[in-house]
Design goal:
Strand order of the largest sheet: 1-4-3-2-5-7-6
Number of strands: 7
CATH superfamily: NADH Oxidase
Order of helices and strands: HEHHEEEHEHEHE
Number of domains: 1
Largest sheet: 7 strands, antiparallel
Strand content: 15-25%
CATH topology: NADH Oxidase
Number of helices: 6
Helix content: 25-40%
Distance between the termini: 54 Å
Radius of gyration: 17 Å
Structural class: alpha+beta
CATH architecture: 3-Layer(aba) Sandwich
């Protein structure tokens, strides 16, 4: 009986961890640096300090990348026919989260450190850009839409004085897709390393 209770407690703990979620602080929608300044500062970074990202920084980057910016649910990046086929994931040393843009929150999907599958840089965080062909069956337009989101990540990081690098040669996209529980219709397009530049 004691063994059953222990097993039930462990299962409950695992369930609680997998269901963990947190609301993100509201992103800054006014002020900040100008677009021209962000474009001037935009560059690729491959070396980072160990400093972790704050929830405020995470909120700003993800909202800038593909957040909701209108009451009708449309986004900060365009998608073909407004199919919104893109989903974003956050990877850190503490686990993996899926970004729920409409609710402005992160939902935990793993307590594993999956960064090694996403890129070879020692970065405190990685963003994974995933497209779903059930929502948009054109890989051509999905690739274009991914580019919009990627550029938004670059500009957001420039505005926050953070570094980032878009990664197309993902070390192990199959393992990462498995860990993120992606369906056969979903495809990892790019990852972005993110952190404070060295």
């Amino acid at each position: 009986m004691k063994g059953i209770l222990v097993l039930a407690a462990v299962c409950a703990a695992v369930f609680t961890l997998s269901a963990e979620e947190y609301l993100l602080p509201a992103p800054q929608k006014k002020g900040g640096i100008s677009l021209n300044e962000a474009l001037n500062l935009r560059r690729t970074c491959r070396q980072y300090t160990a400093q972790t990202l704050s929830k405020e920084q995470i909120s700003q980057i993800f909202w800038s990348a593909f957040g909701v910016n209108r009451e009708d649910g449309k986004r900060t990046a365009p998608t073909a026919r407004n199919r919104q086929e893109i989903t974003l994931y956050l990877l850190t040393a503490k686990g993996a989260w899926i970004y729920e843009a409409k609710a402005g929150k992160m939902v935990s999907i793993s307590n594993k450190d999956l960064r090694k599958f996403a890129g070879r840089f020692t970065a405190p965080a990685y963003i994974v850009i995933v497209t779903n062909k059930k929502l948009l069956d054109s890989t051509h337009f999905a690739d274009i839409d991914t580019g919009y989101v990627s550029q938004n990540i670059y500009l957001a990081c420039a505005g926050l004085k953070l570094g980032t690098c878009a990664i197309g040669r993902i070390p192990d996209s199959k393992a990462l897709a498995l860990e993120l529980r992606l369906t056969d219709a979903e495809r990892i397009q790019l990852t972005h390393s993110v952190g404070v530049p060295k």
